[in-house]
């Protein structure tokens, strides 16, 4: 199966998504995320997860915030999230470039480098503005960026393997730069029980600079700071609606 979509939807890999990222520390990531939200908006009671995928972060956010919701481009991912999050947590199919839920939240988050699929700065500006439009006054937007031109490593191969019960997956990621975009070819061999299939995904994402991320936040009316990750890069951009 070959997948090359813009923006990336993820329908074709939804069934294997949890296996692909089985080693991800969702609990640890959420603890940091909640601390970041609370530091910027201590009284935050509502949160929206944009590009929520199968709801792994959203289900944990719903334990912390009395009012939680999610939105994702992929109907298959939305279906998975609906089956995972607590009853009453709405998950909506929507595109971060033009979604409108008709309400506002104390916090909006967009994780896992999903904004990289916007590819170009005008589209990034549009997506950040859409997220900011869903914030209450004083609300906080937390965005986990994808690679910058300085952190993306072209001509690199990355082998991965994961197992979950009777299911297993091996993945080879090949990175390159093409037309100024960071491109990752991901070759998966997936075994769901005794059923084995292959998936080839192509991810093309914008290599935005720190200045471009900050400019998008500022243009949307947000004051912005960056929290560094362990490697010293911008692990999270945090914007507060002025």
From TrEMBL:
PANTHER family in the cross-refs: METHYLTRANSFERASE, UBIQUINONE BIOSYNTHESIS O-METHYLTRANSFERASE, MITOCHONDRIAL
InterPro entries: Methyltransf_25, SAM-dependent_MTases_sf
Pfam families assigned to the protein according to its UniProt record, in alphabetical order: Methyltransf_25
Domain of life of the source: Bacteria
CDD domains on file: AdoMet_MTases
Keywords, ordered alphabetically: Methyltransferase, S-adenosyl-L-methionine, Transferase
Gene3D superfamilies from the UniProt entry: CAC2371-like domains, Vaccinia Virus protein VP39
Methyltransferase domain residues: 47-139
Biological process per Gene Ontology, one example term: methylation
GO molecular function: methyltransferase activity
Keyword check for S-adenosyl-L-methionine: yes
Name of the protein in question: SAM-dependent methyltransferase
The keyword Transferase is annotated on this UniProt entry: yes
């Amino acid at each position: 199966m070959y997948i090359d979509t813009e923006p990336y939807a993820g329908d074709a890999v939804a069934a294997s998504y949890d296996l692909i990222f089985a080693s991800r520390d969702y609990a640890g990531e959420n603890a940091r995320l909640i601390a970041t939200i609370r530091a910027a908006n201590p009284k935050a009671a509502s949160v929206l997860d944009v590009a929520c995928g199968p709801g792994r972060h959203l289900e944990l956010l719903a334990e912390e915030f009395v009012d939680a919701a999610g939105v994702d481009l992929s109907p298959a991912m939305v279906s998975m999230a609906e089956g995972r999050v607590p009853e009453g947590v709405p998950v909506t199919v929507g595109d971060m470039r033009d979604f409108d839920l008709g309400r506002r939240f104390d916090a909006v988050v967009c994780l896992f480098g999903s904004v990289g699929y916007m590819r170009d700065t005008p589209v990034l500006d549009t997506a950040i503005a859409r997220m900011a439009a869903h914030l209450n006054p004083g609300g906080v937007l937390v965005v986990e960026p994808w690679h910058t031109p300085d952190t993306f490593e072209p001509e690199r191969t990355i082998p991965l393997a994961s197992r979950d019960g009777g299911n297993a997956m091996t993945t080879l990621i090949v990175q390159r730069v093409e037309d100024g975009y960071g491109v990752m070819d991901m070759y998966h061999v997936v075994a769901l029980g005794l059923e084995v299939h292959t998936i080839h995904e192509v991810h093309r994402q914008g290599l935005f600079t720190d200045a471009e991320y900050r400019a998008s936040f500022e243009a949307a009316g947000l004051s912005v700071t960056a929290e560094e990750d362990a490697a010293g890069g911008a692990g999270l951009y945090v914007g507060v609606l002025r």
